[in-house]
Amino acid sequence: MTDLAPPLATSPTRNGAETLMRYGFFLLVIGVLAVFALLRPTFIAPGNIHGMLMSASIAALMFLGLTWLIAAGEIDVSFMSVAALANMVVAGLVQAGAGWGLAALAGLGVGAGFGLLNATLVAGLRLPALVITIATGALAASIAAAIGLGTSIALSSTGFVGDLLDLRLGVVPGIALVVGGLYALFWLVQERLTFGHYIYAMEQNRAAVIEAGVPVSRMLFMLFVLSGIVSALAGVLLAANLSSGQPYLGTSYFLDGLTAVLLGGMALKPGKPNVIGTLAAVIFLIGLLNGAALLGWTDSERQIVRGSLLLIGVGLVILARKHRRHTGPAHS
Amino acid sequence: MISNQLLTRLLAFAALVAVIVLLFWMQNGAYVSEGNLRALMRHMSVQGLAALGLTFVIVVRQFDLSFPGVASLGAMTLGWLIAIGMPLWLAVAGGIAVGAAFGLVNGLAVARLGLPDIVTTIATGGLAIGFSYFYSGGTSISQNFFMSGILDLNDRKIAGLDMPFAILMAAVLVACVLLHGSRLGAGFYATGENRRSAWFSGVPTAGLIVLAFVICGATACLSITLLVASSGAANVTAGNQLLMPAFAAVYLGAALFGRPSVGATLAGTVLMSMMLNGFTLLAIPYFYSDAIVSTVLISAIALFDPRVSALLRRALPRQREKTA
User: Fold this and answer.
1) Which residues of A touch B (CB under 8 A)?
2) ipTM for the complex?
3) Which of A130, A139, A254 sits opposite B63 (nearest CB)?
4) Which ranges of A193-295 would DSSP assign to H, the alpha helix?
5) Which residue, of A77, A206, A277, B117, has the fewest CB within 10 Å?
């Protein structure tokens, strides 16, 4: 893996346990999906797979920036509201007669603007990330609601964004390939470039990283802007996917985003949020919620599953970190 | 010297109050009428109780994002207990017990198991919202409300004060003694300043963090009880409106008075409620007032926080004049 420190002598049993930890999550994902496929054959019907991949791609896009922010020891709870705002900006502009190109650009611009705002306040002025992003998130959410005067906006056409979403390769939507490629790229950056190593170093010892001369503020700045832009991109895609602007779509992504990042933090690099883990966790969550819906679970039951998974995820991440710190400098 | 500084801060607070009153009064003369002042105090009671509990959690330098969800669960528990014919005191106690129980879980998870506060409380808040649907499948509960006497919690008066405001004042008094008039209070602040050194000085830090979360959960449910009493129905989204104003009140107060305290939170609540009440009076839709509240919160943190300006001076030595 990253080989910052040469792997010291590790006993074979610990290696076995680590391997299980590293890849166990993927087994769990496959296992759960297989159980649903057995229980409800419609789960693996082409239409359902296509739908799941589509929602998973958009969700994964939204959580991309969040993954690195949490990996760096920061937090952003405004991402879903920024997505909702971008979504409503697109819907509002299209309804007002603007072209989809302009509307999509405006949506992205608004997302970048909120990313910049978060970045300036948190990375620039060193204000507490949580309270600031609660406030900027509320600001984005209220502007989103104000655009539609509190209700959703239905769209008659989905423009070129809709055409892009309709592209498909068999059951696989084109957007899934694009998002998959993006995740592969981010995985490379995270694993092979020093930028990625600094992200993890920031979480472990911020002061030491600053002392080492890493431009921490600039990196954090970039991460917050990135989070704003990818969230907005997801919001723009959702406008076409839902053929409407939904001012309150953020609430359903909030728990899912944090759950995906923290649960995914158990895969490959135990205790450290990483993009491949997030991707696997998004597929897991979408599959689980979709399968549970097919089995007839109510919304509240699924909400409880989400909350429990988030607790389990965060518990495991902390356990893994403690384990690693107590057993000395591990090779991860 | 210190009292001098306090005087300046009090004057700043009074000036803000005066500006807000003047602005709304010019828009609508009814803003300073007795009826509206009573409405303002009722509003303050609900927001103030939630913010008061949050203050304890903020003092020990933790965050609780679960209290809106927990408050919804508390409201539904209260409504359900009333609907099945339980006496009022038991129903209210049941709702508050739910809040305290969730606070206990949060506190133990954060202080004992070492889980991160933010994500843990987001998760428990999500769980609470899920549970709140179990009582009625998501529909609001209002059976038996008229008979049970819960509406009296809103309507009755004690010594000329409306009941909700009297409850807030009682809670403020208790919180003041707890946080500013006892050794326990000093322990809360010490835990927040430096948990390790507080622990070595004999402060039961883990216990205090748990206690802070329990207080926060319980007061959130007490606050929602007042809201249920005034609206006459319990529903699963009742708690949603608590999050932003509570954080804004605590941070606004802390920004004005230098650190989070009971008085600071009360001052923050007064400012927030005066604004929110004014927006309601002018019939401004909630989404505009939300936007203004969050803008106020962001600017309060950015402009006033002395800790931040100190950090700023260290981080950006050349831009010292910017924060002065």
Assistant:
1) 75, 77, 121, 125-128, 130-132, 134-136, 138-139, 141-143, 145-146, 149-150, 217, 254-255, 258-259, 262, 298-304, 306-308, 310-311, 314-315, 318, 322
2) 0.78
3) A130
4) 194-204, 206-211, 216-241, 250-264, 275-294
5) A206
